[in-house]
Amino acid sequence: AGYIHSSRMQMVESRPNEISYVIPASGQLAEVTVPISLAFFHTDALGWKPVYRLYYQSIHWVKKIDFGPNGQPWYGIEDDLLRVIYYVPASHLRLIQPEELTPLSPDVPEEDKLLVVNRTLQTVTAFEGKDEVFHTDVSTGVPYRRGGNGISTITPLGDFRIDIKMPVRHMGNGALTNDITAYELPGIPWPCYFTKTGVAFHGCYWHDNYGIEMSHGCVNMRPDEARWIWRWSTPLSTHEDWIKNGAGTQVKVII
Question: Whole-prediction pTM value?
Fold first, then answer.
């Protein structure tokens, strides 16, 4: 018998899904519901080539359905960074319905919504006026380091506004590869950016160590809680929006 530290582990399930053969022209968001789904890229010259491993609770834009390398139905995913289509078994993805993404508290004036990130406590709290409506532990940026772009990895202090929201983002260098050591993180769920250097609230599928500094500057959250922030904050987004811009919900990062 042995032990492994839980900080790099997540609870997962394997839940196959009914397959839909009708995909909207604008695409439909979908969630991976198996521990790992290996995606394949197809060309006439090279045939089927394995590319990314898509992980449990990552989010993706389904654009089409076709037959995969095993002759079974596979969904074609459009990568939001590379704008190419790659494929995964359709049963591995749960199509997200529009009613799951309706805005929360849309009647609350924008100036009354506030998100407070506390770096000392490693928490985020949402307020509507003076009322606390959401609170959880998070993982902000690791201090005293610099990322590959030379920018400090600590989450910056100050007052900001959410100015870009996306339901999914491929973060990485943009290589279409099966190399698991490459910096490629497709399907990061529910990012809400609030600094010009790309710091965002977003779901995290590679650790479960909330309450401890872990990130390169972003505010890592459990995917379901990141979706709550995405739905509640402004600028308001819909199930069809690949990206939404605008000076939105206030964000205060304190120590």
Answer: 0.93
